[in-house]
Amino acid sequence: MEINLFAPESFRAGHPHDQYHWLRENAPVFWQQTADGEGYWALTRYRDVFAVDRDFSTFSSEPTVMIADPDPAGDMLFGGRKMMLMMDPPQHTLLRRLVRTTFTREAALTRAPRLDQLARQILGKVAPSGACDFVEDIAGEMPSYVIAELMGLPPEDGRQLYRLTEILHSASPPSEIVAALSAMFEYGREVIKQKRAHPGEDIASALLSAELDGRKLDDAEFLLFFLLLIDAGGDTTRNLLGAGLIALLENPDQIEWLKADLEGRLGSAREELLRYCAPVVYMRRRATKDTRIGDTEIRAGQKVVMYFGAANRDPSEFEAPDRLDLSRTPNGHIAFGTGPHGCLGQHLARLEIDAVLRHLFATLDDIEITAPPQWLSSNFIAGPKTLPIRFRAR
Ligand code: HEM
User: Fold this and answer.
1) Is residue 130 in a domain?
2) What pLDDT does 70 receive?
């Protein structure tokens, strides 16, 4: 079996489950070479991914959670500052605390009626046409509107910002990536001006007035937070919905099971789709000291990469892991990560997913894929780029 978890081509048809399977069985802590010669340890077992994600003192998120080390030019853009995703406690904890209350389960639940209304609008708009691109017209609409509302921005701007994150996450040419980053940066600067002048009941205004160690966030710190929130909540949710619909259509019996009691079964169905599709492929850490994972010695300074999609199909944790079983309970999947960085937006994401699935199955019947979906060729984010479907409006 040829193993290459670094090559974006390996993800051309979604997660490379055949490679994950071989690795879990034969080399669960595998040295993956990279073109720059540096290489990293690839983890594919549930228990290793879980343990490393929680042990932030041995496995640091600094200087970045991407496999490639940061580009010094990108760093300069923000005066050497970083996103909290790429920090360790205690600095990470201080920043996360600034937005924690917006993202609790209770706070997310207060938004549920609004999310439901958005999903109804999105589905209502496409239903009469009988066909659409599920990714563009349904799955991508939801998270971009939600983020825009959270940030107190016009919905159309949410769409624009989300398009920019797509460029950042796909294997775009470096010049396009730089252009997309500067466009976001420009937009963020406008937000700073407007929200300082006219603060509202939104996270952008809250972040600008928050105090960190007795001082306000500076512009670079705000911009990085802004980018993180736009970036983390957009195509993750979209890709779960896109990949999730493909998985459902491949298992029509599961759709029937779900529709037989949509409200009662949505919860376990959504968790199973998260397990099965795992939209975030990996997060990377760096060993702070010599250590071991299983029988493998890890040297201080080496990179360690957690493959969430592989952990989610580990047979020692999940019975018949390659089977989509919407009734699976309990379901301890790790699609949102765990430990100090465990997904901040997970409660909101769950409600977004539920709202779209609820209105999808309440509004459309006989959904069919009309052309082979194209997957993102990315080793970081897994999901279909396009998913043309046709259907009958109920
Ligand atoms: C299906 C949708 C989503 C998935 C699969 C997902 C997955 C993840 C994963 C795997 C991480 C890293 C966890 C770790 O390192 O242990 C993460 C972090 C994060 N997510 Fe999500 N996410 C989703 C939706 C969202 C949404 C809707 C938001 C916000 C509106 C969001 C905001 C964040 C933030 C801010 C972080 C960084 C947390 C930190 O560093 O403390 N995510 N997410």
Assistant:
1) yes
2) 81
**Ligand 1 center from residue 390 Cα (angstroms):** 31
Q: How far apart are CA 34 and CA 289, in angstroms?
A: 22
- Distance of alpha carbon 54 from alpha carbon 341, whole angstroms: 9
Tell me what pLDDT residue 231 has. Answer: 86
In-domain check, residue 374: no
User: What CATH code is carried by the domain that includes residue 245?
Assistant: 1.10.630.10
Cβ neighbours, 10 Å, residue 109: 13
Total structural domains in the chain?
1
Using CA atoms, how far apart are residues 303 and 284, in angstroms rounded to an integer?
7
Q: What is the pLDDT of residue 64?
A: 93
Range of the domain at 56: 16-363
Reported as a single tens digit per residue, the pLDDT across 8-20 is 999 999 999 999 9
What's the 109 CA to ligand 1 centre distance in angstroms? 17
pLDDT at 306: 98
| pTM of the predicted model over 0.85 | yes
Ligand 1 centroid distance, CA of 350 (Å): 11
* Cα atoms in the 13 Å half-sphere on the side-chain side of 338: 18
